[in-house]
Amino acid sequence: MKKWIPVFLAFLIGAAVGILFVLPGFQKRTDVDLQTFSVSDDGSIVTVQTFPEGSMGFIRAMEAKRFGDEIHCSFYCAFGGLNSSIGSEYRFDIQLDDSAERIYFDRGTSPDVLVLERDPDTGVWAAVYPHLPQV
Predict the structure, then answer these.
(1) To the nearest whole percent, how much of the chain has pLDDT over 70?
(2) Is 134 inside any structural domain?
(3) What residue numbers bound the domain in which 40 lies?
(4) Are the CB atoms for 50 and 33 separated by under 8 Å?
(5) What is the pLDDT of residue 88?
(6) For the chain, what is the domain count?
(7) What pTM does this model have?
């Protein structure tokens, strides 16, 4: 009867460690900023290079959703805990079409922040830096 107790405890410890290792990778990061960007020659892809504002953590993935002429990007934490870089990336491709005019980054409960905008006259993409709050 007592032979299965160490096996059961080892299983519980392994499951707890596994859960703590995997769960952070499914949390959204709402502190991601644009570092730089480039547009493909045919204009169908924008590659954004990002960085987290916070001092800890890395970015694992990006999810882009289209709403009319806007693209809203959400980012996810890397796997492995607070400051783990397992599976981390910092460059992401965003598919474009002719109707895309603005790209926003997710800010959680705050309004999404505009990071890129296409000039309607020239069609050239430009970075838009968020305005600082008025004091």
Answers:
(1) 92
(2) no
(3) 4-127
(4) yes
(5) 83
(6) 1
(7) 0.80
